[in-house]
Amino acid sequence: MCDQTFLAEVFGPCDKCSKDKPLRPVYVESEQLSYCSLCVEMMATEGLRENETLASLKNEAESLKGKLEEERAKLHDVELHQVAERVEALGQFVMKTRRTLKGHGNKVLCMDWCKDKRRIVSSSQDGKVIVWDSFTTNKEHAVTMPCTWVMACAYAPSGCAIACGGLDNKCSVYPLTFDKNENMAAKKKSVAMHTNYLSACSFTNSDMQILTASGDGTCALWDVESGQLLQSFHGHGADVLCLDLAPSETGNTFVSGGCDKKAMVWDMRSGQCIQSFETHDSDINSVRYYPSGDAFASGSDDATCRLYDLRADREVAIYSKESIIFGASSVDFSLSGRLLFAGYNDYTINVWDVLKGSRVSILFGHENRVSTLRVSPDGTAFCSGSWDHTLRIWA
Amino acid sequence: MAQDMTEKELLKMELDQLKKEVKNERQMVSKTGKEIKEYIESMAGEDPLLKGVPEDKNPFKEKGGCTIS
């Protein structure tokens, strides 16, 4: 340099570390401060360090996932369909629509059976929640929610109440009354409060507790009477779309599926995630425990359904076909667990042989997406709800 | 809430979860798969959708054909 400019050194306490050092002018959010040269350097590289931390976290996560895969692979000595090689193949299935429940004015989003194996509650985009007698197709109760897109509904174990919610971010419980003079909406109780939409809800073994899943990425357990939050479940990295409680014999766990492509199994008492599975390529729309509680199935926007074995801690079957390109919105098992019914966005219901991995039947009938599907409590029939405004009972 | 967390916080949460899971106990698929198969075989006889139910016994098959007490 031929023309040197000499910096006039200002000496004094640094605005950041307070040490007495030669100072440099620094602009932080258009305010002029004086930092010592060390703090100037640290500030300049801060952005860099932040990125490094993020990258190193990502690397650590990737390597742990790899390790987890390795551990799981060690036990993957055989495929499920190989175990089932000598099981008799299933014959032709004849399943037809036996009842069509008409009455919703818009897309049916969710349904649930009552333990009496006869009544059904369903909820719709227009805010209506209807209780049906599926034998006669009569509507027994109807209530209009203050919000649209009631994405979740559930029947209480006693059969005396229903729970529902959606875009209102809440889960509300309505006692069912047969008194014609009573307005159902009058006795409504708000139980759960989330910070985003309610995607799923389920009573636990009694009318006293409700489990909810939400677009805010969490699941939560609530006391119905007081509305108190009993436990919350954090772990999903995006909206939680579905949940299912383990059959009562297997203990206090439940499984949830989300937009982060993960299915997570939770301990209801501790709030801890016990196991998680990330093999789907897209949102998991539905999860359902296998009847024995040792496994669960999932349905996803990646057009596949999968079976996860909880004790082997891995995915053990994929139910898919090249011709099936639309997402599976809901899944449920037949009583023995041999059949998996799955409703799809291409308006069909596919019936899968759980053991062999093959499709045994396609059911046509709905005129729009199948959004919800549940097998009746005694396994005699299953009900599907659709964006075509109807519900169908198949047997 | 997942919606309020930064990318870093989400990653940390995932990392903590993975560290726990690596330690889980697992069993061989040949054993657990066999148990799934055996469960199905033991319950298959009572599965109405699998075996089919005679028309007169199933309340859904014939509309109005059954009286429920």
Task: Explain the overall architecture.
The complex is a heterodimer of chains A (395) and B (69). Chain A has 395 residues and is mainly β. Chain A contains two helices and 31 strands. Chain A has a four-stranded antiparallel beta sheet with strand order 4-31-30-29, with no helix packed on it. In chain A, strands 5-6-7-8 form a four-stranded antiparallel beta sheet, with no helix packed on it. A four-stranded antiparallel beta sheet of chain A has the order 9-10-11-12, with no helix packed on it. In chain A, a hairpin with a 5-residue loop joins strand 27 (349-353) and strand 28. Chain A is globular. The N and C termini of chain A lie far apart (91 Å). The model of chain A has no long low-confidence stretch (mean pLDDT 92). Chain B is mostly helical and 69 residues long. Chain B has one domain (7-57): Transducin (heterotrimeric G protein), gamma chain (G Protein Gi Gamma 2, Irregular), CATH 4.10.260. In chain B, 51% of the residues lie in helices and 0% in strands. Chain B has three helices and no strands. Chain B has helices at residues 7-22, 29-43, 48-51. The longest helix of chain B is centred in the first third of the chain and has 16 residues, at 7-22. The relative contact order of chain B is 0.06. The model of chain B has no long low-confidence stretch (mean pLDDT 83).
